[in-house]
Amino acid sequence: MEWTTVQHLDLRHVGRGLKPLQPHAAAFHPHQALVAVAIGNFLIEFDALTGSKISSIDIGAPVVRMSYSPTSGHAVIAILEDCTIRSCDFDAEQTCVLHSPEKKSEQISPDTEVHLALTPLQPVVFFGFHRRMSVTVVGTVEGGRAPTKIKTDLKKPIVNLACHPRLPVLYVAYADGLIRAYNIHSYAVHYTLQLDNTIKLIGAGAFAFHPTLEWIFVGDRRGTLLAWDVSTERPSMIGITQVGSQPITSVAWLPILRLLVTLSKDGALQVWKTRVMLNPNRPPMQANFFEPAAIESIDIPRILSQQGGEAVYPLPHIKALEVHSKLNLATILFSVKCKHLNYSIR
Fold it and tell me: Is Kinase there in the keyword field (predicted)?
C-alpha cells in the first residue's frame, strides 16, 4: 500500500503581510469530508476531497489547539494564543468566547502544550495546561455551562486529556505514566491504567480509540506504544512495543484499513497492524500485538517538488498528523515552508 496525495492546500496567500504565514493546526469534521486549517488569525474550512475553500473566519488570534465540536453540526472549538476558548461557527461565520483567562495579559504560543478533550455526550470541552494539577470544563455553546475547575483525586502533574468516543469517560494522563478514567458527570474514578514498575513510562503524548472494540491506544512520551482492553471492570494491557526513542505526539486509527498510525516528535511516521486474538480464552501475546504494516514511507522531497515546484532545504519534517475518523483521509502539516497536504492510503 502507498500514500496518495488527494489535495495540496497551499495557504501562503492568506493574510496581507509580506511574510508568508504557515498553517499551525488542522482538524477533520467527525462525519463529513471537511477539514479546518488554522493559519495566522484565520480559520479556514475546505472540502477535503476537492480542495475548495468553503468558509473563512478571522478569529482575532492564532490557534494553539482546536477540534470540531461533536455535539454541534458545524463549529470548531479552539484555544487561542490569548488563552481564550472560542466556538467558531462556519455556518454563521461568527465566533463567540466560551472562556476568558483570569489574567487578561496571559499569552501562550502555538508551541505551548494545551490539552483539549470533547465528548459527543455533552456540549462541554475539558481543557488544561501541561503539567498543571487541575482540569477545567466549560460549555461549547454560548450561554452554556459556566467554567468549572475540576481537581482530580491525584495531586500529580497532568500531561494529557481524552474523552471516550462512545462512553461517558474522561481519561486524564499523569506524568508518571498512570492514566485515570473518570465519569464525565460525577468525576468518580472508573478504573486506572497502570503498568508494573518494571516498565517505565513518563506520560501519554497521544490517545486513539478503536471504532468498535473497547481498545484504547496510548502513545507515551518515552516512545512506547500501548494497547489496553477496557471492556471489563479490570482493564488489561494487550499490546506494547517500542516505536523509537522520541516522544509519540500522535496516534490515530485508520478505520477503513484497520491500521494504526503513529507520529513521533522527530517527524517519523509509522503504520502498524494489530494482531487479531483468535482465542478469547487465552491472553494475547503483548509483545506481538503490534506489527509494522507494509506501507511505503512518505517521500517528502517528491511531494513538495511535485506540488510547489521548488527545492526545499533543509528538508522539513512532519509536524502534525490528523486522521479522519470515518474516511480514508489524513492531513499532514510540515514544520516549515507551510505546505499542508491531504492523503489517503491505497
Answer: no
